[in-house]
Amino acid sequence: MLNLILEKDIENSTDWRDKSFSNPQKTINLATLFSGIGSIEYAFKRLKLKHNIIFAGDIDPFVKQSYFANYNIKEKDWHDDITQFSALKYRDKVDLLVGGSPCQAFSMVGKRKGLNDTRGTLFYDFARIVDETQPKVFIYENVKGLINHDNGKTWNVVQSVFKSLGYKLFSKVLNSKDYGIPQNRERIIIIGFKDKNTDFTFPEAIPLTRTMQDFLEDYTDSKYYLKEKGIKFVTSTKNKLKRYTQINGDIALCQKANQQFNWHGDFVFEQDFSNNFDEFIFDVSKVEEKYYLSDKVKQYVLSSGTKNFKTSTETDLKIARPLLQTMHKMHRAGVDNYVTHNKGRIRKLTPRECLRLMGFGDDFKIVVSDTQMYRQAGNSIVSDVLIAILKQMDITKYGR
């Protein structure tokens, strides 16, 4: 009796993690545009779902190297230039089409002329291939700013075009940190269903149980540690681009194609216990005496909290992103980020760590340079978000 009750509870649960696939024996014909390093392909791999890659493509030759090293695809089914790619031969052969075109200004935005409104943009090519292949479902991903681009006119055209192709649309801004990955990455997701009788709700957010530190490697090559100039840049309160820099954050900043370049992105502070490092050692004791706290204030900062300021202080750069515009007020009130007296090193995230924070396991083969891998990770879609969507819609219903 208990087992029957538990099965019924799972069946009625709104938590996408509790949902099971109705037809796991079926195979999904998958196609991707602006494929990158294959976030949806990797999601299928993690879910252990049967699938065939019908076609994929990307204009970047380094992306192609990564893709071919990790997925099973024939050369004839890869395209390098979407503007020259015709998908007519794949009509009615695609179950799921996924991609996210770069956000560009629309040449005739707002005139509501269907595909003619978007001609000259890469979104036009995505919509054109939806029209040519007629997939059962498509997923389109883009930056959150697409919604407000050109005072909302671009967003209106995007929706109008997809509807004109005969699809029922569902859209929502999803953040990776709401689906198990500690990264503050907001993206607009549009899902189109060929069957207009489809009812769909986006997967609900789940509690975040891991921090960025859980995704770090145990051993790191010395090349990732910052020299004196880089350390001064990322720790300086005068850095006007501080919002693009974070040290030892619990939730990673949004990864971007230029992450880790010019000392922007997430960094890790590691305390030095050996004093035997050849690299530059960051000594936080080398500051003017006036910045040290009095015994009275130190006790306040290190206490568990007060009635009014229970969570208003932080030590050791656990969340080192003070609000610069209010620092003068915060210091006087004893409310801010503080550091204890220690030495250590600051390093960049490694490419493997960046991949982990995009939902890619260590079985993903890195076959390109660090520079290219940073870009490819920053341009990808978080696999965990796609997994939540696939489970929520029960993608196996669309298999064959």
Structure in words:
The chain has 400 residues and is an alpha/beta fold. It is 26% helix and 16% strand. It has eleven helices and 13 strands. The strands form three sheets. The chain has a seven-stranded mixed β-sheet with strand order 3-2-1-4-5-7-6, sandwiched between helices. Strands 8-9-13-10 form a four-stranded mixed β-sheet, with helices on one face. It is globular, with a radius of gyration of 24 Å.
What is the makeup of the main sheet? 7 strands, mixed
Tally the helices.
Answer: 11
CATH class of the largest domain: Alpha Beta
Strand-residue proportion: 15-25%
Strand order, main sheet: write it out.
Answer: 3-2-1-4-5-7-6
Enter the CATH topology name of the largest domain.
Rossmann fold
Name the helix and strand elements from N-terminus to C-terminus, one letter apiece.
HEHEHEEHEHEEHEEEHEHEEHHH
CATH superfamily of the largest domain: Vaccinia Virus protein VP39
Structural domain tally: 2
Mind telling me the C-alpha Rg?
24 Å
What key attributes describe this structure?
7-stranded mixed β-sheet, alpha/beta, 400 residues, 2 domains, Rossmann fold, 13 strands
Task: Please render the helix and strand layout as text.
Layout: H1 2-12, E1 28-33, H2 39-47, E2 51-57, H3 61-70, E3 78-79, E4 96-99, H4 122-133, E5 137-143, H5 153-164, E6 168-175, E7 186-193, H6 228-235, E8 245-247, E9 265-271, E10 282-283, H7 295-302, E11 314-315, H8 327-332, E12 337-338, E13 343-348, H9 351-356, H10 370-378, H11 383-393
Parallel strand pairs: 1-2, 1-4, 2-3, 4-5, 8-9, 11-12
Antiparallel strand pairs: 5-7, 6-7, 9-13, 10-13
